């Protein structure tokens, strides 16, 4: 169900794009929309989640400096993760919780984009009515 609701925006978005351009420009307009969506989604999304994950993990880690203790110790010999023990478990826990909170925080963007879709629909309805 979530996957269906996650993609509900596709139909209305491309219907509006196709309605706003002439028929011979529809393919180009669709390509530009896809390009912008992918640049924003794949270019901004993963780094933003990674940054937020590190920020949340640093705040959730109670055993000291998260960056110094966890990131340096995980490298081990030749980059292999060889670190074990209670501090490793605390780092893993803080990192997992940080990632969870980062992904939940980024889901707020869905509400923000929904608001913009609503505002755009009101504008397009007024435009279609001739106001």
Automatic annotation (TrEMBL):
- Judging by the UniProt lineage, the source's domain of life is Bacteria
Q: Name the InterPro entries for this protein.
A: MFS_trans_sf
Which parts pass through the membrane?
101-119
Keywords for the protein's UniProt record, in alphabetical order: Membrane, Transmembrane, Transmembrane helix
What is the protein's name according to its record? Answer: Major facilitator superfamily (MFS) profile domain-containing protein
Per the UniProt record, the source organism is Cupriavidus lacunae
